[in-house]
Design goal:
Strands 1-2-3-4 form a four-stranded antiparallel sheet, with helices on one face. With 136 residues, the protein is an alpha+beta fold. The longest helix has 38 residues, at 2-39. It starts with a helix and ends in a 14-residue tail after the last strand. 32% of the residues lie in helices and 38% in strands.
């Protein structure tokens, strides 16, 4: 019995390490994405969209004040739901808007990407085109 516990314990530790790596990679991807939104860096955003999905260019009128990751829920080792709040305004208007985006992320081919994005509350966000929902 003792001989069986050693390999089982090692296997369990290995699985925890892999899951932890996946979580860290997701957090890195989310922060790269949110910083891309905040600073208008489309190449940071594009890296987290499904292959073939084009990111709509943001209007030059758009000014993002903050873009913060509010919540991350891992549904499985390769699936998660993130909530991101974006505070923004258009230069042509003097009104501050706040948008809460709910995003579904999956790990595909060793990278985390957004599979679905929708406005959970607040004003529609003009900065990024809607990410098409693809079957998970």
């Amino acid at each position: 019995m003792r001989y069986l516990l050693g390999p089982a314990f090692a296997l369990l530790l290995g699985a925890c390490g892999t899951n932890q790596h996946s979580k860290h990679a997701l957090v890195d991807a989310l922060y790269e994405y949110s910083n891309g939104v905040r600073w208008g860096r489309s190449e940071w955003i594009q890296g987290h969209l499904p292959k073939g999905q084009e990111s709509r260019a943001a209007s030059s009128q758009l000014q993002v004040i903050t873009c913060e990751v509010e919540n991350i829920v891992m549904n499985a080792k390769d699936r998660a739901v993130a909530t991101i709040r974006v505070d923004w305004y258009l230069l042509s208007q003097a009104k501050l808007h706040s948008t809460l985006l709910r995003q579904t992320w999956i790990e595909a081919g060793g990278r985390w990407e957004i599979r679905e994005q929708r406005v959970a509350e607040g004003a529609p966000f003009p900065g990024i085109g809607r990410v098409s929902s693809t079957p998970l």
